[in-house]
Amino acid sequence: MTKRFERDVASHWPVAYKQNGYPHVQQGWVLPPERKDEFDPFILMAEDWFKRGTFSDHPHRGFQTITYVIDGRLEHIDNHGGHSILDAGDVQYMNAGWAARHAEEAVDDDLIHTLQLWLNLPKTLKTTTTSYQNVYVEEAPLVPIDGGHVRVYSGDIAGVTGPMDSLVPITMSEVSLQSGAAYEHIIPTNHNAFVYVLAGSLELGTSATPLAKTHAATLTYDETSDGESVVRLKATSRAKLLIYSGKPIREDYIAHGPFVMNTEEEIRQAFRDYHAGGFGPPAVK
């Protein structure tokens, strides 16, 4: 049997938060956008606390989003008639493709708490049709493990397949562990991967690097291998974390405002198309 690649922590950091006031109450960069070259195929991840009116009607082009609801109720509205409410543990996947226009709002007077991950698209997929997929918490397979469980949103993990249908190969899992529990998480060796600690504390990787709530870490990987790798976790208190992985795209790109394209001219064209009405009517109920 081929020995699995043993992952370690490549880099780790505590998330820094800023108070924005009403209605975008607080924000932190889990994956800071200025470090995007480290995260390929991921671009950034924002953690937000917000009230209604923060993310009303707006456009996107050229990438995907994965929004995980930590707390509160998130209302999705798009300009193709889509409407849904997501609760804690639910996830929405969006392929912006060529022309998304949507709103992400807190319901009523809720203070919504979310994580939104931006996932790049290769050049050949940036003109695809816009689509949305809700993955409700009860639809994501829950796998019991010693001292905890793994909830699988995307990819082949722990013997099950997550329901998320991403255009590029990714995995997304939520791991919950009792204090003292150990777990080996298996993901493709050639995937770039990161973790974000939602609660508690743990030791991560071959170095047993200590991480606690609101800490993020990237992991070592071998892009030349098609095999499997193992991420070792040991909870030092009751812990909950998210683990994401994806195969790097390795294309130059530009992220500007709500658009992610390969050239400056493509960014300018996206703005022209939006202002000319090419993204369709506003996203309102």
UniProtKB/TrEMBL annotation:
Residues 48-119 form the Pirin N-terminal domain. Its cofactor is Fe cation. Pfam families: Pirin (PF02678), Pirin_C (PF05726). Keywords: Iron, Metal-binding. Fe cation binds at H58, H60, H102, E104. Belongs to the pirin family. PANTHER family: PIRIN, PIRIN-RELATED. This is Pirin. It comes from Exiguobacterium chiriqhucha RW-2.
